[in-house]
Amino acid sequence: MIAAVGCLVIALACQDVDRTLGPAKAPPKATVAASPPVLLSLTCTLELSSTTISCKPEMRSPAAAMSASVIYDSTAGYAVFFPYNLVKDTVAHTWAFTAHVQNLLKQSIGTLNGTTVTGVKAFVTDLHATSSTGSVSVANADGSGNFTAPNQPYFNYNQFVAPSGYSGNKLWKFNVPNAVTAVSMSILISTDFPAEQSVAITPPSLRPLWFDTLSAGGFVPRVVTVIFQSFATLADRQLAVAFVGGTLIGGTPLSMGEGFYHLSIPDSGQGVQIDSAIARLSRLPQVAVASRLPLLTGQQVNPSDRTTLRQQPPSIDSLGTKNNLAFEQISPPDTEPSWFSADSNWNGSQMKRVISLVFKSGTTLADRQLAIAYVGGTIVGGVQGDDGEGGYLVSIASDGSVSALTAAINRLSSLPQVDFAVETARGAPNSLESVHGAKRTSRPHSPAFVSDSDPNRDSSRASSTARLAASPPVLLSLTCMLARASTVISCQPARPRSAAGVRASVIQGDTAAYASFLSHGFVKDTVARTWTFAANVRNLLEQSIGTLNGTTVTGVKVIVTDVRATAGKGTVSVANADGIGNFTVPNQPHFNYNQVVAPSGYSVNKLWKLNVPNTVTSVCMSILISTHFPAEQNVTALPPATRPAWFNDDSSWTGPQHDDFLKRVITLWFREGTTLQDRQLAIAYVNGTVVGGEPLSSGDGVYYVKVGDDGSGTQLGVAISRLKRLPQVEVAALTSAGSPGS
């Protein structure tokens, strides 16, 4: 039944789930670049001694007109290049392999309109021998063009590829002298997609009329608002929109540059797909902010704006006039509402509908506006700090329950511009002043957003050694479709299920990308009644997998939890499993990749063979990828009650006490109920080491996680960005003199 649901989800995913939205009028067309956007830039290594090809994101400086966000950032997963079956012919002096492309956008590629084919081109921008001597060249290119330099050979996949779909296979052949034992190849994958036709370098000054039919106080259904970083190119903006399958329906350009893009996203109306789109956009380096679009009330717009947001976007013409406590203010007011004193506004010691909010130093006006609009908040007071910043008191429209306030705090805490968001305790705004740290004098104690003053708290639970699960953690759960009429295998993340030991955060998440399953060379044999393909696993953690200590091999198991016919009659089974085990149910076949796989590395290929009667035309297969990794050895279910002595050394900090942060330490807080395995996977995802923590008497707490960094904070920022995209992470932030010290 579990697998049946997973297979059904794949079929339903292709249906149009939203036909109610449409732009008031067609937005202006962007000028299409002379060359289509680049989806992927890779450097691949081919070796005489290996049958596999190793490819990694290109790390060199980008060529002119190419976006660094595409080239440097492997999180911007717009496409995947699958090369396999490297064959060397010493007589013909050629090396050859087969390759195809997977589209990870939510729009078709190889087309501008969904019907006319423009194709997907893979340019070979550099090809040279890296060992021995000899001239290496492309032997069978489909053509040559001028992309980053004149006369670059390319392979043309002359088709359009649907979202999550695969191109056909093409043979790549190279002239390689027998003296050469290794070759390096740089490729760029360039293609068209529909968002090029509608997304311009600046947002349109356009607002759908149907916005006016909605009630104020909530969010515009099925719409995401995006602000791009100032460095984002036209292609970066178009790719971001295509990445979530968005349709540009309006926007608000700002006089100071940039502005807001409004994207329509197909959604069931419950906001699940909207939240997924926001999560996908937030991981892209060119996106500054992605959020829901609030329908604000008149009280949330300064009177001198003359109207409400439902009729006209707010301006900043009243900034500094202090006519009211509008969300437009860049500095918090130094006031407290008189109604704070009424007992009806309190749940014990906490305000029912008010959040205390502190932004990171240097946060722009637009970022503050978006954060408060993100939760439909209204500024009702605050405190101005000695350093020119301060804290805001933000009223949230809710039923007054703790859960509603917590939901808003969680949303705010996920934003990069927010230092912290907490419930408002009695004594505000004075409590805000102490929280913000206008009078900070010491380093570290517990982080302000999870501070615990209970002297009797029990920290012993966090100090015990982690217990390894009976089965290794699950990195990926997939449902794959195999069809007699197709040469490729389509796999999608499996949906939530109730099997013991299988976590929803792994199963649901295209954001929790811990591993990839790569299948190649799908062949059907009607005589032997078998279907076969080669498959390998890619490790997307920043720790090795298949080992607990980096040297001793434990292997990577791919468990087939279900395989069955979905069209035609007959029994389907695995023909050549490496073993049988009990994972979610008894007697499940598995394939064992008995090796250690390095970060971003690939396992060897293994042949998979299924017994499939000739009467069967399609098959559904559910798999789980399970393995060990070093973080299992030192990450416990609760943080340790320790702090390294070197936290107190000035050399561990980046600057003066009030402005600095620990050079190589992230403060990490998990969502309530996060499993031990989810905590271990998150820390392995950034190759972190737990060096301390602050357990709370109420349970859980904060982990201090050390990551590799050159001291500038650049790598810390990358690690924080990776952690924030994981569903189990509540907060990931720099460890500042203020956050661990109040």
Which characteristics define this entry?
disordered C terminus, 6-stranded antiparallel beta sheet, globular, 742 residues, single chain, disordered N terminus, 10 helices, 33 strands, mainly beta
N/C terminus separation? 52 Å
Which whole number gives the mean pLDDT? 75
Low-confidence stretches: 1-33, 297-329, 428-470, 496-500, 738-742
The 3D shape can be described as globular
- Main sheet summary: 6 strands, antiparallel
Beta-strand residue percentage: 25-35%
Q: Tally the helices: what do you get?
A: 10
Query: What share of the residues lie within helices?
Result: 10-25%
The neighbouring-strand order within the major sheet is 2-1-10-5-8-7
Task: Count every beta strand, where a strand is a DSSP E run of 2 or more residues.
Answer: 33
SS content category: mainly beta
Rg of Cα set: 27 Å
Describe the protein.
There is one protein chain. Mean pLDDT is 75; it is low at 1-33, 297-329, 428-470, 496-500 and 738-742. Helix content is 13%, strand content 33%. With 742 residues, the chain is mostly beta strands.
Describe the structure concisely for a colleague.
The protein is mainly beta and 742 residues long.
